[in-house]
Amino acid sequence: MIDHGKVEQAVRLLLEGIGEDVNREGLIDTPDRIARMYEEIYGGMEEDAATHLSRTFTVDSSEMVVEKDITFYSTCEHHLLPFYGKVHIGYIPDGKVVGLSKLARTVEVFARRLQLQEQLTGQIADALMEHMQAKGAIVMIEAEHMCMTMRGIKKPGSQTVTLARRGVFETDPALEERFFRMLER
Description:
With 185 residues, the protein is α+β, with helices and mostly antiparallel strands. It is 43% helix and 26% strand. The protein contains eight helices and seven strands; from the N terminus they run αααββββαβαβαβαα. It has helices spanning 4-17, 30-41, 49-53, 100-111, 117-132, 146-149, 168-171, 173-184; strands at residues 56-58, 65-76, 82-92, 96-98, 114-115, 136-145, 160-167. The strands form two sheets. The protein has a five-stranded mixed β-sheet with strand order 5-2-3-6-7, with helices on both faces. Strands 1-4 form a two-stranded antiparallel sheet. A hairpin with a 5-residue loop joins strand 2 and strand 3. Helix 4 packs across helix 5 (117-132). It is elongated.
């Protein structure tokens, strides 16, 4: 749970630390605004993917389901700067599918935490396997990291791409290839 008071105190100290006057008109309410914002953007800390992925529907098919171009925003745990982009999810159901909005909600559960992109990719794939008992899951994330674009190396537009394969996607290269073909459409 976000401790609103501690966040406010920390923001005041940060503002003082960079030489700002915390009593300046434009900054007086900033600690409260930041604390409220953190409650929103780090709300995934208090959520469980099982809540979303446990609502399934019975199907006779075990054909691949793909949800692509799920926009996400997260925060790099190394620099506390945003990274954002698109998540593409594929899974092979084992008699059960989940509502498509639940895939996007699962992305949000993990994206709304301090993260590493590599970790985020794996967490989404693992959640599909664990909570849906899918035969296989594949997750690809394409993201731009502000820690790469506005500081350090300063390379705007560069994309980091990560991939996590689980279950049948690890053993059947044809399934992985079909997933990538479906993303091109």
